[in-house]
Amino acid sequence: MCVPVLAAASAGGVPRRRRNGRARVRGRDDGRRLGAAEIGAELGERATLVQFSSAFCAPCRATRRILGEVAGMVPGVTHVEIDAEARLDLVRRLEILKTPTVLVLDADGRLVRRAAGQPRKADVIAALGEAVRTDGRRP
After folding, report:
1. 109 secondary structure, DSSP code
2. C-alpha distances out from residue 68 to 17, 21, 94, Å
3. Would you state the torsion angle of the CA atoms of residues 108, 110, 115, 119, taken in this order, to the nearest 10 degrees?
4. What is d(CA 9, CA 38) in angstroms, rounded to the nearest whole number?
5. Does the pTM exceed 0.90?
6. Are the CB atoms for 104 and 49 separated by under 8 Å?
7. CA 131 to CA 139: how far, in whole Å?
8. Domain ranges (residues) in the chain
9. Residue 5, φ and ψ in degrees, nearest 5
10. b/e map of 30-64 (b: 16 or more CB within 10 Å)?
11. Do 83 and 53 touch, CB atoms closer than 8 A?
12. How many distinct helices (H) and strands (E) make up the chain?
């Protein structure tokens, strides 16, 4: 009796776990822009990494470290952390469903990629490369 239940749970859980933290663009996000007033900080000269976090989120701390390291490696890139509980208006408007969620914005504040869950450093760097390419300047 429990074998079918375990099989069904695994069938749904494995693909979801593989997508966790992967940077991707959802169709309705493409072209959406966020400004300095909305995120509460100045946009980076080349790109901005926006992280939505919550107080008791362990993956949020690791994500903060990863994004800070990547922002420190690439000139003109800023990391902004937003407390999801304090900015429920923005969370609802952007359909943030879990923390951490990372948005990668280009120099104009246009949403290039988003990732729900703790991203891998390589994925952040790749998404950042795309954001820098779309800003109209040479990387």
Report:
1. -
2. 24, 16, 22
3. -20
4. 39
5. no
6. yes
7. 10
8. 21-134
9. -65, -45
10. eebebeeebbeeebbebbbbbbbbeeebebbeebb
11. yes
12. 5, 4
Alpha helices in the chain (DSSP H): 2-19, 36-39, 58-73, 88-93, 121-134
How would you classify the pairing of strands 47-53 and 111-116? unpaired
Residue 91's identity, in one-letter code, is V
Rounded Cα gap, residues 84 and 91, in angstroms: 6
Note the pLDDT of residue 113.
93
Give 21-134's CATH code, choosing from 2.40.160.20, 3.40.50.2300, 3.40.30.10, 3.30.1330.10.
3.40.30.10
pLDDT digits over 8-59, tens only? Answer: 666 665 555 555 555 554 444 556 899 999 999 999 999 999 999 999 999 9
